[in-house]
Design a protein that fits this description.
The complex is a heterodimer of chains A (about 180) and B (about 280). Chain A has six helices and seven strands. With about 180 residues, chain A is of the alpha/beta class. Chain A has a single domain, classed as fumarase, CATH 3.20.130.10. The radius of gyration of chain A is 16 Å and the shape is globular. Chain A starts with a strand and ends with a helix. The relative contact order of chain A is 0.22. By secondary structure, chain B is of the alpha/beta class. Chain B is built from eight helices and ten strands. The mean pLDDT of chain B is about 95. The chains are: A alpha/beta (about 180), B alpha/beta (about 280). Chains A and B meet through helix 5, strand 7 and helix 6 of A and helix 3 of B.
């Protein structure tokens, strides 16, 4: 049974999501990966406004392939999240409520997610063609010079992902692995 | 003397860049289907189904399976009685990469300077390896390598006394530590012996070998089988969300080494395991 979730995320929605929940996400999400995160943090250092309203937002760690004519977006699966760990907690403090990526997060991110009530979703790494089907539109809103790494505003419909780390710190990467480990 | 034109090299490389990114290799597909049937984790099984569906979609729509269309690794085997005419081979290959990535709507993922980090905008330069062989021969292999898995690769200079047990422990530690990051199920390439760069070279080159073909030496074949079994007992599973399918193959290559050393490199590949070869 998949849960349908609509953006923006509120505390109530985040609190209702548990590690292991399979999600179909609809609404607006923003893309951002290594270079974009570095610029967002630079913005904060310089007391400049961020290029999108971060309160209740979801960041998707992705650098899409170029879109073919007539397509909303090219293949767009998640990139590995740990590279954003050192640049994430200031964004969570400002109201970032969700992150979509793949792979592990470090302890300081998980602690900040618990404090700020935020959730970490995983999408299937390497399933970029399939994931593109759930993207209705894509528009670059900042840092166009970064190419694939620019910040895009995506409208998504039933974007498939899984709650891997919830706002209580429950982490599927740890619990599920233990279940299938054989000595 | 065999002649190969630079134009034909460029054309072949451009086509192979796209083919490698659009079409899952047959042996990899077979392995994914085989492991999907055996997977006991419901979520793991459904992820393997999605990965296969994604590959099908990519082939039909002529789009890349994964948005990370990689840094383009190219292997060239040139015969001693073969000559490239009407151009310089390295330029011909890089032109092919630029054309393939441009016309194929593949992502350009290469930055010119590793510290300044400005995109070259055409995915060049490729990482090009040349190997001389005897006779009239020209074979080219294109293997786009994503960095989700490349970043999880490791090298270690073991002591001779560490032996085979040391090798096993290092491979398992590397895969275990990588966990969900390199997009499991993975293919594990291992290079043992040589020097530090030779071990890395043969580790990556082992990833070109079909998953249904083992190393010809019995003791290395046995090591491939044992390591695959041990890796799949780690519990990591598809995408790290638990299960019995952490790797779909372990390929090992070896090379003579120094009396004082036992270099080992573990090069991890994602489940797309892209590579395509052509003889011109």
């Amino acid at each position: 049974m998949k849960k349908k979730i609509q953006t923006p995320l509120t505390n109530e929605i985040v609190e209702s999501l548990k590690a292991g929940d399979q999600i179909l996400l609809s609404g607006t999400i923003y893309t951002g990966r290594d270079a974009a995160h570095a610029r967002l943090i630079e913005c904060l250092k310089n007391n400049e406004p961020l290029p999108f309203d971060i309160e209740g937002s979801i960041l998707y760690y992705v650098g899409p392939a170029p879109s073919k004519p007539g397509e909303a977006i090219g293949s767009c699966g998640p990139t590995t999240s740990y590279r954003m760990d050192d640049l994430t907690t200031p964004l969570l403090d400002l109201g970032l409520k969700g992150m979509v990526g793949k792979g592990k997060r470090d302890l300081k991110v998980i602690e900040s997610m618990k404090q700020n009530k935020a959730v970490y979703f995983a999408a299937i790494g390497g399933a970029g063609a399939l994931i593109a089907n759930s993207v209705i539109s894509s528009e670059i809103i900042a840092y166009e010079d970064l190419g694939a790494e620019a910040i895009r505003k995506l409208e998504v419909k039933d974007f498939p992902c899984i709650v891997v780390i919830d706002c209580y710190g429950e982490n599927m990467y740890e619990t599920e692995r233990q279940k299938y480990e054989r000595k | 003397m065999k002649e190969v034109s630079a134009f034909n090299i460029t054309k072949a490389v451009a086509e192979m860049c796209q083919e490698a990114n659009f079409d899952l290799c047959g042996d990899v597909k077979e392995a994914l289907i085989h492991f999907k049937e055996k997977e006991v984790s419901p979520i793991g099984k459904s992820i393997l189904e999605d990965i296969l569906e994604n590959a099908e979609l990519a082939t039909v729509k002529r789009v890349p399976m994964c948005q990370d269309t990689g840094m383009t690794v190219v292997y060239v085997e040139i015969g001693s009685e073969t000559v490239v005419v009407d151009g310089f081979i390295e330029d011909a290959i890089n032109d092919g990469i630029a054309i393939g990535y441009g016309t194929g709507y593949l992502r350009k993922s290469v930055v010119k300077d590793p510290l300044i980090r400005v995109n070259t905008n055409d995915n060049t330069p490729g990482i090009i390896h040349y190997e001389m062989v005897e006779g009239e021969h020209f074979k080219i292999t294109v293997a786009p390598k994503g960095f989700g898995s490349e970043n999880m690769s490791r090298m270690k200079m073991l002591k001779p006394s560490d032996g085979i047990e040391g090798v096993k422990a290092f491979v398992l530690e590397t895969v275990s530590e990588a966990g969900p990051n390199p997009c499991p199920p993975i293919v594990v390439g291992v290079g043992i012996g040589g020097t530090i760069e030779k071990a890395a070279y043969i580790a990556k080159k082992s990833l070109m070998r079909p998953l249904d073909a083992h190393h010809p030496d019995e003791h290395i074949k046995a090591l491939e089988i044992e390591l695959l079994d041990s890796i799949n007992k780690l519990g990591i599973g598809p995408q790290g969300l638990g299960g019995l399918t952490t790797a779909i193959g372990v390929n090992i290559e070896t090379f003579p080494t120094h009396i004082a050393g036992l270099p080992v490199v573990v090069n991890i590949n994602c489940h797309a395991a892209r590579h395509v070869s052509r003889t011109l």
